Amino acid sequence: MDNKQQRRRGRTIAIEALFAFLSRNREVPLSDCLNHILTAVSETDPDPFITTLLETAEKNLGKIKVLIQAFAPEYTYEKIAPINRIILILGITELKFLDTPPVVVINEYVDLAKNFGETKSGGFINGVLDNYRKSLGLDRSR
């Protein structure tokens, strides 16, 4: 598996783990949610990227929620479909806190939204993440 495929798989696992964590109102530790997903997909040697992404998202969840509300003002945070919230949380985490090029972040999460979300999810995710990227003054390709 090449690095691009490995990162895509890592993001998919992160989406599933964060979804499980947040749908249980944070009552089950995120590490337990991740371990459950890793066991379910028979992942014996997970990419450290997954843990970094999830720990960074969890640590900064309050800040990220405010950013989502600011860049998706037509929806209250609670009205955004849960899967789209998860995708936005992870996308903003990568844009703000990790060193992933913006073009990669936006393209990856738009594709994941098309796989996990509804028909219009890809466009919604693209709009929110790209507007956030612009607010940071980042070039799409950095």
List the helices and strands and how they pair.
Blueprint: H1 3-23, H2 30-40, H3 48-59, H4 61-71, H5 82-97, H6 102-116, H7 121-135
Helix pairs in contact: 1-2, 1-3, 1-5, 3-5, 4-5, 5-6, 5-7, 6-7
Please characterize this protein's 3D structure.
The protein is an all-alpha fold. The chain has a single domain, classed as NusB-like (N-utilizing Substance Protein B Homolog, Chain A, Orthogonal Bundle). Helix 5 packs parallel to helix 7. The longest helix is centred in the first third of the chain and has 21 residues. The protein is globular, with a radius of gyration of 14 Å.
Q: Short description, anyone?
A:
This protein has 7 helices and no strands. It is mainly alpha-helical and 142 residues long. The mean pLDDT is 93.
Q: What is the number of beta strands?
A: 0
Principal-axis shape equals globular
CATH class: Mainly Alpha
Structural class: mainly alpha
**Number of folding domains?**
1
Unreliable stretches: none
- Could you give a short account of the major beta sheet? none
CATH architecture: Orthogonal Bundle
Q: What integer is the average pLDDT?
A: 93
Percent of residues in helices comes to over 70%
> Could you tell me the strand content as a percent range?
under 5%
Order of helices and strands: HHHHHHH
* CATH fold-type name: N-utilizing Substance Protein B Homolog, Chain A
- Number of helical regions: 7
Can you tell me the CATH superfamily? Answer: NusB-like
- C-alpha-based Rg, rounded: 14 Å
